Amino acid sequence: MNEYINLTLENIDDEHICCAIGDKKHQSGVDSKKEWIKSKLADGHVFRKLNARGKIFIEYEPVETAWVPISGKNYEYIYCLWVAGSFKGKGIAKELLEYAINDSKTKGMSGICTLTSKKKKPFIGEKQFFLHYGFKVVDEIGDYELLALQFDENETPKFNDNARKMKIDKEDFTIYYSNLCPYVEYEVKELSAYAKTKNIKINFIKIDTLEKAKNAPCVFNNWANFYKGEFISNTILNANAFEKLISK
After folding, report:
1. Cβ atoms within 10 Å of 20's Cβ, excluding its own
2. What is the DSSP code string of 45-63?
3. Rounded distance, CA 66 to CA 78, Å?
4. pLDDT of residue 86
């Protein structure tokens, strides 16, 4: 039987958070993510992981306080459900999702929702997996879809109007990011250094409050790339990935 751990203020300093395990260059990002989780636990934030050394976890909280440009009432929002490597195909994702669903019902929630996409994208949930459990598309922006599993007749969540713009008024390459992902902090530093050596202007806009997250000008989970005012992807970039992207 699989053993799971929910992060708390009492154990978070001693537990890993799955992503970037053992990668020292991302330690600063891991520390920032842990501090963010600590600040969110009072909101009902849940980070549940398999008690093993691997990338196996689910992370969710009430949509009202979730750092995404989505509005809703009495729904949980799943930020991430990740089962990687040798742990795939063992029913762990099923157990994690079922825990979140049952936890939401126990708390008297109206449902649970998450972000997916019509075509597979990095750092976005697998649409077919959620559809199998009864989730349905309740809103969409371009290739991105909001899926929800309803428990009662309350109104389903939706993307905020500002997120539908998918445009900004800056022509320079612009990145919106947050500490929701422990990989982000290192990549921002690497890209900043790269831009300086190449004399390229990259604007970095940090989403560091709930208000900023709710008012993001695009679908946002932890990273968003804009170029010439247009949203181009949610892919977290390092210097090499940036070069490939702008050369297209």
Report:
1. 19
2. -EEEEESSSSSEEEEEEET
3. 9
4. 83
How far apart, in Å, do the first and last CA atoms of the chain sit?
Answer: 48
User: How far apart are the C-alpha atoms of 23 and 29, rounded to whole Å?
Assistant: 10
Mapped to the 3 state alphabet, what secondary structure does 101-151 carry? HHHHHHCCCCEEEEEEECCCCCCCCCHHHHHHCCCEEEEEECCEEEEEEEC
H-helix or E-strand containing 213?
helix 210-214
Contact 144, 219 (CB under 8 A): yes
Would you state the structure tokens that stand for residue 201, as one six-digit string?
């202007």
Residues of the chain below pLDDT 70? none
The pair of structure tokens assigned to 163 is 């997120």
> What 3-state class would DSSP assign to 247?
helix
Token representation of residue 60: 């969710």
Domains and CATH numbers, the chain: 4-160 (3.40.630.30), 162-247 (3.40.30.10)
The length of the chain is 248
**Which among 6, 90, 14, 73 has a CA at the least distance from the CA of 45?**
6
- The values of phi and psi at residue 226, to 5°, are -125, 145
Contacts of residues 190-194 at CB distance under 8 Å and 24 or more positions apart, as own/partner, are 190/238, 190/239, 191/237, 191/238, 191/239, 191/242, 194/239, 194/242
Separation CA 125–CA 102 (nearest Å): 19
Q: What are the tens digits of pLDDT across the range 141-181?
A: 999 999 999 999 889 999 999 999 999 999 999 999 999 99
Q: Which among 152, 153, 143 is positioned nearest to 115, based on CA atoms?
A: 143
Q: What is the pLDDT of residue 235?
A: 92
Which amino acid is located at 17 in the chain? Answer: I
